[in-house]
Amino acid sequence: MLIWRRSVSSHWPDTPYGAGYGPGFYSLVFELLLRLRANYLWPAIWGTMFEVDDPANQPLADAYEIVLGSSHTEPLMRAQNEFGHFYQGPWAYNLNNKTIDEYFRYGVQRAKPYARNSLWTMGMRGTGDTAIEGLGVDKIVAMLEVLVKNQRDIISEGLGTRITDVPQMWCLYKEVMTYTFQGLQVPDDITLLWADDNWGNVRRLPLRNETSRSGGAGIYFHFDYVGDPRDYKWLNNIQLSKTAEQLHLTYARGADRIWIVNVGDLKALEIPINHFMDLAYDAKTWHVDSTGDWIRAWATREFGPGLAANVTDVVQRFGMYAARRKFELVEPETYSILNYNEADAVLEQWAVLHDDAQAIYDALGEDAQPAFFEMILHPILAGEIIHKVYIGSAKNLWYAGQKRNAANDMINYVLAASADDANLTIRWNNLLDGKWNHMMDRKCIPAKLPMWFGMEKSSPKEACEH
């Protein structure tokens, strides 16, 4: 996404294909993964080509012992952008299979020296991470079965080993999951990665007669999403207790071979990422009802025992408020300005949360304040502002319809909140001498650049980011 490109370009020189997503950048990503006790990465889709942007990227991942994969829409260790850059014809296996097979063969050849730390993505979707078009479901299912057989032959021949000795994964994302109901047969040694609904609700888990598959199963989860009906990627809006509930459903049903989470712009999601990885690493300690204990342990580590209880309370309330309606989905009509004092009650909750978080910030030493601002105070301030903007807009529309002069007061209220939002961004950009400059900028752009962490986005489209 544009924000990543701005930040990366301000630190590292561009590559021949775009921003400088090379070893300087990825060494920090790999270190972060290992510190989180994660070991698996799907590099970003949009606008990047991990192995091509800098030839040192793939060997660097291997040196860090990072298991490298590719997203649900990028089979056999190749970025989808590579096909558009270097190959002719459509990304359609029924029309261009010889070219696409050659594309796969080179991916295997390039990754062969690093095969010990590779996990191969199988299958295929349409261009730009969309559904395959132009064929009926029965023909798509038949084509995918032939495609995967050919992919397995290409991997086996390219690596010179039995395919059953090669770790493979097929992410059954969106419509691909429905093909299993139409008779899609998946080889037993391929790990099935079941996907959530893009909003943190697990759609499908192994049935009792599926738990003996040698490839096992896993889950593809979202903390960030670009696609229909709307994106959400501005700020952390994850309720940790829901994450714990959904992942423990997954764990209990045996989908424990691979856990991968789409984190998009990871800076805003440090707390949910840390929580997800701790659940993945030690699901027994961090059981389904452990969220409060986990936050308290995290807060004690980060800000000391004296303020841990207060931090825990603030983080839990923020998660509840933000999860009621993700920020990108809030609209003037979301909360009623007429019935049960709903809208004003919501604003009051955010105001109290703001005051409580500010009191913690003021009690911290100067060395701890930037971290608290980044992870906790900033999203609370931003969340309060966006609710002021939309609720103020609703009141303005209502008052204007009544021909009341108070409509002008609400216009000024909304404009003041918008100014607060701009000033909050300036405050963020100036923090720590500009260390995270541009990381929280938002504007209307067509391209989205996600990143996925695991133990991966959807189709690019115009969307306004706040």
Fold and architecture overview:
This protein has helices at 2-9, 23-35, 50-53, 57-63, 80-86, 93-111, 137-159, 175-179, 240-252, 270-281, 291-303, 305-324, 342-363, 369-401, 406-430; strands at residues 40-42, 67-68, 120-121, 168-172, 190-195, 217-222, 259-262, 452-454. Mean pLDDT is 91; it is low at 444-450 and 456-466. The chain is built from 15 helices and 8 strands. Helices cover 48% and strands 7% of the residues. The chain is globular, with a radius of gyration of 23 Å. Helix 13 (342-363) packs antiparallel against helix 14 (369-401). The relative contact order is 0.11. The chain has an 8-stranded mixed sheet with strand order 2-1-8-7-6-5-4-3. The chain folds into 2 domains: 2-291 and 446-454, Glycosyl hydrolase family 115 (TIM Barrel, Alpha-Beta Barrel), CATH 3.20.20; 304-434, Methane Monooxygenase Hydroxylase, Chain G, domain 1, CATH 1.20.58.2150. With 466 residues, it is an alpha/beta fold. This is Glycosyl hydrolase family 115. Pfam families: Glyco_hydro_115.
